[in-house]
Specification:
Blueprint: H1 2-8, H2 26-59, H3 61-74, E1 92-95, E2 100-103, E3 109-111, E4 123-128, E5 133-143, H4 150-163, E6 174-176, E7 181-182, E8 185-192, E9 201-208, E10 213-221, H5 226-237, E11 240-241
Antiparallel strand pairs: 1-2, 2-11, 3-4, 4-5, 5-10, 6-8, 7-8, 8-9, 9-10
Length: 242
Amino acid sequence: MNARSDESTHPATRPGGPPRHRGTGEPDSAKRVTFTVALVATFLFLLVTAGGLVWFLSSGGPDSELTSGAEEAEAPVSGSEPSDDSPAPEGTVADPGSGVAYELPDGGWERLGDDEVPQEYSSYVVLGSVEDPDSFIVTGSQRFDGTETLEETGLRLATDTVGTFVTGGGTPEAAPSGTEEVDGHPAFGASVGSPTDEDPYGRLVLVKMDDSHGAFVLGLNTDGGTEASAAVDAALNSVGVL
């Protein structure tokens, strides 16, 4: 009796096989969780990738962003100061090479092109023919070596320059003309002859730009005549610094 009772309380097993167990449902649940996590991760990855692609296409990419920044940096600022290359007012002879300017006289005066200017000058204006002008006005630069005063350099420059164009009357004598300052820079003015005579007449204005160099404007009426001499005076009286 007891032996049979004990046998009824244990499940029967197949000879040589493993014992049978009741299913718990855990393997299927774990698979569903893993699949759900993988699905969510894939969706998020696709969402981020799509968003990045939309941004890239709409902004033009990194190259477009860099180009835009460069264009903004090169854009002119409203109200900025004009550059040094701004054209001079009409009727003004501006010479950036020497740093001075003056008003062009009326009555047939003509400025030569840069390729026509003699090497020792940086601008050249003539009245009459280019080959044999009746009058001319030139500008140029002058080096200072400290051995002469501004007045001595001005007188020498006026005498030497005018003397190369005036012949037959000996060496012209230059005298101070009263100019002492041009736009805050020390200056010296000299004249050769008299503007009221029929003889050749010349004017020079030498401006001290700094301790080592200066700029000059020289006007010369070689054929005489009060009208041309008056034009030379008007131009030399208007000399200014650029």
